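Hi L.,

You mentioned the student needs an example of a multi-chain input paired with its predicted structure. This one should do, with 786 residues in total across all chains.
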Amino acid sequence: MSLATATDPRRHPASAPEPRRHLEIAPSRAQRRARPRLKYVLVTMGGIGVILLAQLLLSIWIADGAYQVHSLQSEQTQLQRTQRALGEQLDQLGSPQSIAQSAEQLGMVQSGNPAYLDLKTGAVTGTPSAGDTGLIAGTGDLVPNSLVASGGVQLDQTASTDTGANAGNTASGGASSTTASSPDDSVIASPTTH
Amino acid sequence: MNLRRRTGRRLAVTVVAVFALLAVFIVRLVDIQVVQAEALTKAAQARQEYTQTIYGARGEIVDTNGVVLAASVDRFDITASPQIAKADGYEFTRTAKNGDKQTINLQDSVQELADATGGDPQKMYQAIIGKPDADFAYLVKQVTLAQYQKVKALGIPWVYAALDPARSYPNGAVGANLIGAMGTDGPLAGIELAENSCLAGSNGAETYNSSANGVPIPGSTVTTKPAVDGGTIKLTIDKDLQWFAQQDVAQQVQATGAEWGTAMVVRISDGHIMAAADYGTGDPNDLEHATSGSFTSRIFTQPYEPGSVMKPATVAGLIQAGKITPSTPVDVPSRFTDGLPKGVTITDSFYHGDLHLTAAGVIMDSSNIGIAELTKLDTFQNRWQNLHDFGFGQKTAVGFYGELAGTLRNPTDSVTQITQQFGQGMTATSAQIAQLYQTLGNDGTRMPLTLVEGCTKADGTVVDTPSTQGTRVVSASTAQQVRSMMETVYQEGPSSKYLQIPGYNIAAKTGTAQVADPATGKYAKGQYIVSVAGLVPADKPQYAVVLTLAKPKGVTSSVAAAPGWKALTEQVIKAYRVPASTGAPSLPPVTW
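Structure written out for the whole complex:
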């Protein structure tokens, strides 16, 4: 197409050889426009470079993320295990044997004959009576539970030492208790007489 | 010319060489990619790919309030690689927090491990030294998380840990007669065994490719087999009441020198067993000290002759048949011989002359002669059918593992035909007795006795829900009349003062049954199975409480069972807030 328009009128095939002059086909406007420009090359190369770089960064990021996921997952496993272990301990603390033992260590006794107070009328139904002894006081706990007996689950030690210290103080007429552990506010000290 | 030929030859040699090389490569390629492909892939995977077990946890067993009775817990096996320990010269260097370096030898290492886990240092030492080239040796099995963390903190390079889930029973022996136990090779008894198909989980597996430092390569994790957690079994029992009942039975058995004892609390409206206690139940956490009776329930598996606690069933049948009312007069002679073979007499537990008792009086005084007189009023077949309808001679709906039906024979001899009506010459389980009282308390409708509320699978679906379809045995009016007769036992009967819970009207019946001696085939002297069954409160019963002691020494009458029954009934009243009765009961006349 472009050749057709580039006809040189001075050129004749029959003409004798003469020193050739450097000739150049003048590009048409369309040709000029169609010619690849450096800009495009740079853009393309740059684009490829950016893509490669992005991919590299992405894989670095993913790999880094994998480590993070791994560490978070192992942390999660650890926390789940801790939660289960604490739940297991809680279940053991909540066992009737543990509760009965703790209650009676605190000096609690079994309630007496059941009776109810009707809040509307103020009337007492049933015949109340005082509590007598603990459930396991005389005979010991006859329903074995090695998880409680093994000492794995015990009442907060500060409670018993605190009570012991108080009882000792009363008996010895208020001896100095500087060495006694600080009383734990959350534990109600058991009365020494009941 | 010469040059061109030389060039051509050189070219040919080169081409041939190139093609030959190419052929070698192709052959090798085919060999690797096709011929050996499978083996090589496998070998590669074995090096890169790690398979990990995902544990499907065994389901929990919970009580009626959802409190855990049996659960899977994390335990860890501490293992070692003797090979690596050997390569390290059996010692390692620990850097303390302040930067001090310390070399720890093998003996100190195992001592530290023993201190952390409670294991035997000598055994651990042997495990490592004994097979120095092994890659794996158990040091101590089944340590807790806290112990495992201590081991980890020691930082011994050749010590490893593996998860090894175990079964734990946080409440120890509470309900272990029903739950059973898990042994090392699977369930041993009770619910653990009977409901294994619900409880058992299945382990899965996943594989992943790992980097040099053990981190899974992203996207490489493949779950080859998903883990399925087991379902949760919900029981009807209440762990606190169950503990109380077990403690109560144990105290009473020990106090009376009895051979065995059982106690049951059944919710009347739906037949749910709130507590079922056996004496001698062991701790499933401690299988070493278990005996053959530790994890089984006599309540379901050991029928015995129940004695007088059967009498309310007999009178219920007679009232239902329209033969008697609570005030029907009965002439009770000092002995009963009518229609019996020569030399056989039926007597009462106490000597008396002719008594003018009503039917209610017969129940109150628990007169065998009175019941024998009453049996004349109806045919044997009808009376047998009545006991059958109350569920005797058939297994309960619980379907406990190893449950027995007891025997309610269809005897031809005239003696058994009568004694059966007061609980001798027939056998029943404690569960069947409790079921009888549930029926009487529930206005004559027997609800299926229930121990398992259902199985909740891991995906939340609930299966194995028990039937709630009741069976009418006698009419509401009949049941109500029988309860009024039983109220006389509690209010005025011979053992009344041992049963009193002030403020509460209760329908009760005592039993003192003779025990057959298998050696002689006769009833053993001075040996009785004593029981008290009660419905609280009498006017609108909510709970049936039955306590049985076998062969108590000293006091051998039902009075022996009274303190235990009373304590348990009081506990039921407190635990479930059973309101006190208002006003005195209207009792039927007991004499005429």
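You could point out the following to them. Confidence is low (pLDDT under 50) at residues 1-6, 150-155, 157-191 of chain A. The beta strands of chain A are 115-117, 124-126.

Best wishes,
N.
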